[in-house]
Design goal:
The chain is α+β, with helices and mostly antiparallel strands and 483 residues long. Helix content is 28%, strand content 22%. It is globular. The chain binds manganese (II) ion (2 copies). One manganese (II) ion is lined by residues 94, 284-285, 314, 359-360.
């Protein structure tokens, strides 16, 4: 009997042909998923299509149900043999990722280019978004309620967009500044076009139309003076508007009721000569969405009712009606209780529930090992990571999972032979972070953060291990079906 704990390497545990081919298959599916799901709305749409494929209905009378709120958060549930009063197995992840949101007044032109102003969403390192191809994703809702889905810059035939970085020759002053001061949010402006509108391409203004003619589709400015000036100036911006109008029927005012975001363009990729790593945007936290969904869909007739939920807004604090601080989960459970077991109280269900906050962990970075405390750091390829508590400096703002619950979980995984690790985010005085765990813990359920390690988290090209993705999928499956 080995008294010492030895972390296990997934590559050594899953080295037989069957495991390796399943790992490969999962990785390929994951890369495809990651390449097309770059926003919370796209992710929720994908999850919805999978739910429908597996026979889930948007109806709580069904034993396989899903519910979507505002297109940005989704819950799936599968009725178990045991009563709801025994609690549910709940796994939650988030479908939003850091990015650059277009401002509501985005469009302008300067120095012969048309640009879009942005307001970044979540924790980004601004310089990582410069001088790289960007795509535009999102929705525009016209005044009549018509919703237009936009994805520009992903098809190889599409143009891409970019934020031009400063040339090194003229950056002598900038490079002496602190990183926090060197890069300004107001300089994160995305280049959208360069050529001026020709005379016949200029959008017709109200003045050109006869009195009484409908001019609701007019992108012109609000004052008469500005209208005239805009016609002569802003020709590059006008060209961009013309192209948006031709392609999507948009006028400038439509951008007020829009959620457009600039995200890294292009597909996720395998990384390394052995293709053992996966690089791509949005793996925090879509790696947990993907593995959680796969694990959930692989179940049949479970003992305990299984609930899967994907939230929005985690990267900006979980506020808003689609974030984890909202009452969406509560409402869904109430609907489930009404439909399946009306005599049961919501608080009983919650207090008997076991939950996983499925979110990524910071894997030890080979170049920045000094920010990690090695004894309590996680390694790529060593399986999903338990983070007993998040928070910062003195566990402030943490959900600290109960020892009893950690024991229950490690027992399940050990029995199934799935590698896992126990870690904390970094050195105590260096920083910290939070997840949705604490917002669920208020219900009295058992919850812990558990997900794969990521290198370069929150960057436009995050890195995960194929072996960790496979192990995470297996671990979530064990959790769902554990007695
Ligand atoms: Mn996350
Ligand atoms: Mn994050």
């Amino acid at each position: 009997m080995n008294l010492e704990f030895e972390p296990k390497n997934c590559w050594q545990i899953f080295n037989d042909p069957e495991h390796l081919s399943q790992m490969e298959q999962l990785a390929k599916e994951y890369v495809d998923f990651l390449s097309v799901c770059k926003t919370e709305r796209e992710t929720v749409n994908f999850v919805r299509s999978q739910a429908l494929k597996y026979g889930f209905k948007e109806d709580f009378a069904s034993s396989k149900v899903f519910k979507i709120h505002r297109g940005k958060t989704i819950l799936l549930a599968r009725k178990g043999k045991k009563p709801l009063a025994n609690g549910v197995r709940l796994l939650g992840a988030h479908a939003d990722s850091p990015r650059l949101d277009l401002k509501q007044h985005p469009l302008y032109e300067e120095c012969q280019v048309a640009l879009a102003k942005t307001h970044y969403y979540g924790g980004i390192r601004k310089y990582q978004w410069l001088s790289r191809p960007l795509a535009l994703h999102g929705v525009v809702v016209k005044a009549d309620g018509t919703k237009i889905d936009i994805v520009l810059g992903e098809d190889p035939a599409d143009p891409v967009f970019t934020i031009a970085d400063l040339l090194p020759h003229l950056a002598h002053k900038q490079v002496t500044k602190k990183v926090t001061e060197a890069f300004e949010a107001e300089k994160l402006n995305v280049i959208l076009g360069h050529s001026p509108a020709r005379k016949e391409e200029k959008m017709e203004s109200c003045e050109d139309k006869k009195m009484g003619e409908d001019c609701k589709d007019n992108p012109c400015a609000s004052t008469e003076d500005a209208k005239h000036k805009n016609k002569e100036k802003n020709l590059i911006k006008q060209k961009v508007l013309k192209l948006l109008h031709d392609k999507f029927g948009l006028v400038e005012e439509d951008l007020f009721s829009a959620e457009l975001m600039a995200v890294p363009a292009g597909p996720a990729r395998f990384v390394g000569l052995d293709k053992a790593l996966i690089g791509g945007y949005g793996q925090d936290d879509r790696v947990c969405v993907f593995t959680g969904l796969k694990a959930f869909l692989a179940q049949e007739e479970p003992e305990y009712t299984q609930v899967l939920i994907f939230w929005d807004k985690e990267e900006i604090g979980s506020d808003g009606s689609t974030g984890a601080k909202s009452l969406f989960l509560e409402y869904c459970l109430e609907d489930m209780i009404d439909a399946w077991e009306p005599e049961t109280k919501l608080r009983t269900v919650f207090q008997n529930t076991k939950a996983i906050s499925a979110d990524v962990h910071a894997a030890m970075d080979p170049d920045y090992q000094e920010v990690h405390e090695k004894l309590n750091a996680s390694l790529l390829g060593h399986g999903p990571v338990f983070c007993k508590f998040t928070g910062h400096k003195g566990k402030y703002g943490a959900n600290d999972a109960h020892a009893e619950y950690v024991a229950w979980l490690r027992n399940i995984l050990n029995k199934a032979g799935i590698p896992w690790q126990m870690a904390e985010l970094g050195k105590v005085d260096i920083g910290g972070g939070g997840t949705v765990a604490k917002f669920l813990a208020i219900y009295g359920l058992d919850i812990i953060d558990f997900g794969p390690g990521v290198l370069a988290m929150h960057s436009p090209f995050e890195i995960t291990s194929k072996a960790d993705i496979y192990a995470t999928y297996l671990a979530y499956k064990e959790f769902f079906q554990a007695e």
